[in-house]
Amino acid sequence: MIRRLLVANRGEIARRVFASCRAVGIETVAVHSDADARAPYVTEADYAVHLPGNSPTATYLRGDLILAAARKSGADAIHPGYGFLAENADFAAAVTDAGLTWVGPPPKVIAALGSKIEAKARLAEAGLPVLPGYPEPELVEEYPVLVKAAAGAGGRGMRLVREPETLAEAVAAVRRDAAAAFGDGTVYCEPYVDRARHIEVQVVADAQGSVLTFGERECSVQRRHQKIVEESPSPVVPPALREQLCTAAVAAARAVGYVGVGTVEFLLDPAGDFYLSGFNTRIQAEHPVTELVTGVDLIRLQLLVAEGSPLPYPAAPPMRGHAIEVRLCAEDPAYAWRSATGVLHRFSVPEIAGEFRPLPQPGLRLDAGVGEGDVIGVHYDALLAKLIAWAPSRYDAARLLSGALVRAEVHGVATNRDLLVRVLRHPSFLTGDVDTAFLDRHPEVYAPLLSSVDAVRLSCLAAALSGAAERRATAPVLRSLPSGWRNVPAGSQTTVYDGPAGPVEVGYRLDRAGELAHWWVRAVDPDELDLAGLGHVQPTDDHPPVAVVSAQRDRVVLDVTGIRLAFNVHRVGAVSYVDSREGSMALTELPRFPRPAPEPGPLRAPLPGAVGRIMVAPGQRVGAGEVLMTVEAMTLEHPIQAPAAGVVADLPVRPGSLVDAGAVLVVLAGEAR
Amino acid sequence: MTVLDTAVDPRTPSFADNAAAMSHRLTELAEALEAARAGGGERYVTRHHARGRLLPRERIELLVDRDSPFLELSPVTGWGTGYPVGAGVVTGLGVIEGVECVVVADDATVPGRAANPYAAAKVRRAARIALTNRLPLVALVESDDGEAPADLDAYVPVGGLYRDVARLSAARMPSVAVVFGNAVGDGAYLPGVADCTVMVRNQAKVSLAGPATVTALTGERPDDESLGGAEMHANTSGLADFLAEDERDAVRLARQCVRRLNWRKLGPGPRSPLPEPPKYDPDELLAIASADLRTSFDPREVLARVLDGSEFDEFKPGYGEAMVTGWGELHGYPVGVVANARGLLGSAEAQKAAHFVQLANASETPLLFLQNSAGQLAGAEQERRGAVKHGALLLSAVANSTVPHLAVQVGAAYGVGSYALSGRSFQPRFLFRWPNARTAAMPPDQVSALLSALSQDTGRDGGEPGSDTLVRQRMGAESGALFLSGRLYDDGVIDPRDTRTVLGICLSAIASGPIEGAGGYGVLRM
C-alpha cells in the first residue's frame, strides 16, 4: 500500500499524478528546481522538496537527490512521470533497493526495453513484426533512414536522413542530443517508412500475469518527431486491425514480462502492414485520449499494479466516442519552432469539463502544467498544457477542440495554438488523411489564424479603442465627456503598435455621439516612425465600415458591415493581447514621445583647465560614452565623453591647450545614414 | 427632482422647418470652420510640412491627453472682417497630463498676423480666460518671418498680452511657452514672460531683432542661430529652460512642464463621476430653436436635452413666466439656470431673475444663462410699473454676482435682454452662440418700423424703394452669429447638439479656481 508518493517530475504530469493520488487518498510530495518553486504542481502538493539549481542534470535527473528527498519527506513510493528518469533502469533499481515502491515496470524490464536495439532483437525473437534496424550507422544500406537514440523517448533524439552525405552529421547531432538528454549517446538507424502512421497500443499488465489493452492511439501529426496531435481511436484502424494490433501488443508485453502501464508503438504503412517500432515503459503524455474514450483512470491503474494488486477487471472497457489531444507549447512554429519565453499573463480556456481525470461525459479536459503569472523559462520543455476533447465522433471532437483553442486566451508567450487550430480544421486531417509528415506536406498550417487583412486591422482598431476607453474611464478630469470630442475636428486619434507584421498606425475619430466617424490602419515604415501619429499620411480608404457597438477596456464589440464581432483586449504594460473568433494577436504600443537620441555636436570644456590626453583623431568614428579626451584642472582629471555616436569632425585643441569653461574641445558630427 | 417632459414632436411641420433652417446655418458654420482649418492655404501648409514642421492643430493633438476633449475657442475670429478666418492662431481648452489648460498655438502658415488686430485680441481673450478661470497657459509659439506690427491697431494692444501673461504668473497661473519657430521682436517677450520655456533645436529663433535688422542698425553680422537660436538660449542666455531635439520632443517637454506644476483644482469636482445623460435625444436641439426668431420657444426643451438626466427643479415657476429659473446639474456640476421663456422681459421676470441670481451666489452655484430675448416691454404702463427700475435691478444683480457665469445665446438677444442675461458686456466666463442667434439693439422689424415712422414724422420720403429690405438685409448680416463671433463678441458659435459638451468642459475649467458667491447682503426677496 502506498501512503505517500513522490513524483520525480514537474509540470502537468506531476499534477496529473497528484490528482489520482488525491482521488485514492495518497499523500503527495513534489520536488522542484529553483525555477519551479512557485509552479502549480508544487503549490498543490502536500509536501515539496527543493532541488537546488535549474538544469535537469542538477535537479530532475539527479536520482540521488530525489531519493534523499523521498527519505526526507517520508515518501514510500516514487512515480517518475514521463521523461527525465522515467525509463532509467538504474534509478528504478535504486528506488526499489531503497525499499520504496517504484511506480513503473521492474527495473530489468526497463533495462531490456531501454535499449531500442536490444528491445527490437528481443521482440523479433518473439515473432513480432519489427523493422529491420542498423545497430551501427555504418551498416546503413538504403535511404531514407531514421537516426535514433537508443535511449530516446518522446521524440527526442531522432533525425531523418535522406542522403548518405548527411548521415554522419545527423548521427553526430543525435549523439550529442541523446548524451545531453538521456546520458547515453548510443544511436542506431532504421528504415524510414514514407507516409507511415504512428499507431500505439496502451497496455497495462499486473504482477499476476494478466495483460489488458485499452485500444490504440494515433499520434501521426508530429513536428520533428514530437507528437503534437494525438487521438483515440485511430481513424484508419478497423476492428479487425485493432484486434491484430492489440494481440501483438499483449504478445510483446508477455515476451518481456511486462508489469505496469506501457505503450507498444507501431508504424502502419500505407499498405496496411504494421511494424512494432518501440515499447515505452512509462505513462505517456497522450494517455488522456485513452482515458476519455475508455473512462479508465490509467494513473490509478498504474498505482494499483505498482502496489501489487491485480487488475480489477478481466477486459478493458469498450471505447466510446472519439478523443483528440493537442499539446499547447510555448514555441513559435513560424520561427522554426523557437522556444518562447515570457510571463504567462493570462491562461484561460473556456468551458472546461474537467482536469487531469477521465470525464463522466463528453467535453473538454485540460491538463495544464502552468497557471497565470507563471514565468515560462528556457530550462524545460515547452509544453504548457494538453487540451483534450471527447465527443461522439472524430469530427465533433476536432470541432470542439479547435473551437476551444480559438476561444482560449494565452497571453505573454508565443504558442503553437494557431497551428493546432489549422491542423484540426484542415480538410486532410478531418478526413483522417494524416501521416508523420503531415506538417511538411501542408505548410499552409503554419499561417497565423489571423490572416485576413481586415481581421488584423480590426484587431488593431479594437486595441486602440480599448485603450481610448481605458484612458477615458481613468481621466482625472472631464471623464464623462465624449471621447476625443472636437468642435473643430482636425485630425485623428492615433496609436502606433508594433505588431506581428511590423509597426502599424491606427487612426480613429469618434463623433459627438461616440460613433466611429472614421478609422484606418496603415503600415508604418520603421524609419518614419517619427511621422506616425501626426496624420500626415492619408491612408487609402479600403477599410470596411465599422460601427462601435461598445468599447470598454477589456472588451470591444464592433459591427463590421452588419456583422457583430467581439474582441477581448487584455493589456499588460505596453502590450495589448487581442483575442477574437478571427484569431489572436499581441500588439506592443510604441511610445508616443520617444526620448530622442542626443545629437552629436560640439563638446565644451566643463571648467577652465588644460587639455590632458586626447584619445581620438579627426575623422575617427566614436561610440556613445566613449572617452575622447581629458581636461585637467585643479589636479583633477575630467573625462570628456561622447554623448552619442558620431564622427570627430573637428578637434581644435591639443594636449596641453589651456581652455576656458565653455570652450569647444571637439566637434562630433552625426554619422551619415 | 423633477424630470422635464417634452412637447417636441418630430412629426410637426415646424419641427422640419426649424431643422431645415438650422441645417442651413450649420453648413455656414462648417464652411467658416473649414476656412479656419485651412490656415494660410494649401501652398503654405505644404511648404510648412515640407520643412518638417507641424500645423498648430497637429501640435495640439500631440500636446493634449489622448482621447480627451478639446474645445477650440473663437475658431472663426475674423469672419466677415476681411482678415483671415481664425486670425492665424488657434486657442482652446485642453487637458494636458490631466490638467485643464488654455492652449494658444500660432499658425505660421497664415501671413500678416502681426498686422491683424484680431490675432492679438483672440490671444488676449484666451489669456483672459486663463486668468479668470485659474488655468495654466501653454503657448505654442511660431510667428511668420520677420514680422513687426506695422498697423497701429495691432501694435498698440499687443503689449497687453505680455502684461496679461506676466500677471497670470503673479496670480499663480503658470505659463509654458514652446517656441517652434521665430519669436522675433515683440514676440520674444512671450517666452520671456513665461514660467517655463522650451525651444526646438534648429527651429526656434528668439531675438529682439532679426539678423537683417541687427545688421542695418549696428553693422554686426550675426547668423540667426548665434543671434537667437535655441541652443544659444539653452546654453548661454538662459532664456530657454529646455532644449528640444525636435517638435515631438518639444511637446514631450511641454507636457513634462505641466505635469510638474503639481496642479490642484480649487473648485469642487463633479458630484458624480458618470452623470446620467439627458433622457431626450440631443439631435432634436436642431429643431427646437424656431426658424423665425420672432417665434419664441420653451427653454425647458433645451434644458431637457442639456441637463443631467433631464432633471430640472424650477424656482418660482408660477411667477414671471417669461423667465425660467431653476436648478439642475450638468456633467455632474450643479448649475442655476436663468432662461428667457417668452421673449419679453417684464418687471416680474426681472425681479424673479434677480432673486434667483442672489440665491445662486448664496449657494456658490455657477449660473447658466440661456438667452433668447426679444427685448423689454415698452410703453407708458410698463414705465409706471417700474420697468427701468426692475430692469436695472436685474442688471445690478448680474453685474455684482461673483459666481461664474456661462451664457449661451440660443435665439435672439435684442435690447437690454442681450446683456441682462450676462451678455458679452457683462463678462461671463464663457459665452457661446447657436448658429441661429442674432444680437442687436432691436429686432429688424422694429428698426424698419421705426425708420418708416421717423420718415413720416419728418415728412420726408421713406428713402429709396426697397430701403426697408436693405435695412433688414444689412441688419441680418451684421447681427448673425458668425459675424458676431468673427468680432470676438463670444467664445465661439457652437452646434446646438454640442451644447452640453461645451458647457461641461467650461464648468470643469471654471472649477479650476474657487467658486465664491457675492457677499455683503442676504438674499433680498423682491
Describe the 3D structure.
The complex is a heterodimer of chains A (673) and B (526). Chain A has 673 residues and is α+β, with helices and mostly antiparallel strands. Chain A has an eight-stranded antiparallel sheet, with helices on both faces. An eight-stranded antiparallel sheet of chain A has the order 25-24-23-30-29-28-27-26, covered by helices on one side. Chain A has a five-stranded parallel sheet with strand order 3-2-1-4-5. In chain A, helix 4 runs antiparallel to helix 5 (107-114) and helix 11 (394-407) packs antiparallel against helix 12 (417-424). By secondary structure, chain B is α/β, with parallel strands linked by helices. Chain B is built from 19 helices and 18 strands. Chain B has helices spanning 13-37, 42-50, 56-63, 117-133, 152-170, 189-193, 211-218, 224-228, 230-237, 247-259, 299-303, 347-362, 380-384, 387-400, 417-420, 444-457, 467-479, 481-486, 499-510, and strands spanning 71-73, 89-96, 99-106, 137-141, 175-179, 182-184, 196-200, 205-207, 242-244, 313-315, 323-330, 333-340, 344-345, 367-373, 375-376, 405-414, 430-433, 438-440. In chain B, helix 12 (347-362) packs parallel to helix 14 (387-400). The interface between A and B is large, with 36 and 50 residues.
Q: Would you summarize the structure shown here?
A:
By secondary structure, chain A is α+β, with helices and mostly antiparallel strands. Chain A contains 15 helices and 38 strands. Chain A has 5 domains: 4-103, 3-Layer(aba) Sandwich (Rossmann fold); 132-192, 2-Layer Sandwich (Dna Ligase, domain 1), CATH 3.30.1490.20; 194-446, D-amino Acid Aminotransferase, Chain A, domain 1, CATH 3.30.470.20; 453-589, Glycoprotein, Type 4 Pilin; 602-669, Beta Barrel (OB fold (Dihydrolipoamide Acetyltransferase, E2P)), CATH 2.40.50.100.
